[in-house]
Amino acid sequence: MKQKYISGYSQTVQKPLLDNKLTNARLTPHDTRTRLGLIKNRYPRIIVEPIAWEKMNNYVGFCNYEVGWLGTVVEAAEDIYIIDDVFLFEQEVSAVTTSIDDESMSEFANTLLAEPDGLDKINRLRFWGHSHVNMQVEPSGQDNDQMESFADSGYDYMIRGIANKHGDMKFDVYDYRRGLIFSDIPWMINIPTSAELSSTILSEMESKVRLARVRGFTGKTYKTTGPLYDDDDDDVPSYEDYFDENGEYIGGYND
Ligand SMILES: [Zn+2]
């Protein structure tokens, strides 16, 4: 009976049916286990301008409670975010928690509006930072809830920074458009460098520092191997890799 019914099918279907094994099943959507990978130099990274860095050092240094602040962000190309300034807002602090509600946010926006370029600053408020005082800089559940609430306020992305008095600071980017959280992303401070000082030091080093000759077990001497000087082409991206002397974006890190 079964055989008779099955005989109407093609040979390729008949055998699996008879064996009760459907090896040529139709392609079917399944419960997915979505994973993410990172492409080198193609995920969010942060540059902190000296004024913002200095202010945050002082906020964290002076306050023994979980003080919070907001900051303005310049979106440079290719997922590079520049935090160019930070601001204290009116708040009540405690030892273990910090948060911002819509009300304190809009009050703060009003005070910013009075400043030069106030509207521009308000539009660029994409950074929320706070101190964990002496605790580690891992986000609390409340910190995560706070970040998710920014999505409801209509932001497309938001950066969070958590710092402590031991000098730790950790940045995360919440990308609400793509529904992604980038945790503990690389950051650097735009410390001004002096090309003049560098070249003076290189000349001084060339006149004072020489490769040693080392005596081996056999009594023979040989020179220490490897180059004495490093060129500045290292693996650490610097502000100059991204911007020219006028602060114009010049196309990225290609070391
Ligand atoms: Zn926190």
What are the main properties of this structure?
alpha/beta, 8 helices, 255 residues, binds zinc ion, 2 domains, Cytidine Deaminase, domain 2, 22% strand
Concise synopsis of the structure shown:
With 255 residues, the protein is of the alpha/beta class. Helices cover 29% and strands 22% of the residues.
- Taking all Cα atoms into account, the compactness measure Rg is 29 Å
> What's the overall geometry?
flat
The domain count comes to 2
Residue-averaged pLDDT: 85
CATH class of the largest domain: Alpha Beta
Strand order of the largest sheet: 7-6-5-4-2-3-1-8
Helix content: 25-40%
The CATH superfamily of the largest domain bears the name: Cytidine Deaminase, domain 2
Oligomer: single chain
| CATH fold annotation of the largest domain | Cytidine Deaminase, domain 2
Bound molecules: zinc ion
Number of strands: 10
User: What does the largest sheet look like?
Assistant: 8 strands, mixed
Order of helices and strands: HHEHEEHHEHEEEEHEEH
- Percentage of β-strand residues: 15-25%
Helix/strand class: alpha/beta
Low-confidence stretches: none
Number of helices: 8
Question: How far apart lie the N and C ends?
Answer: 72 Å
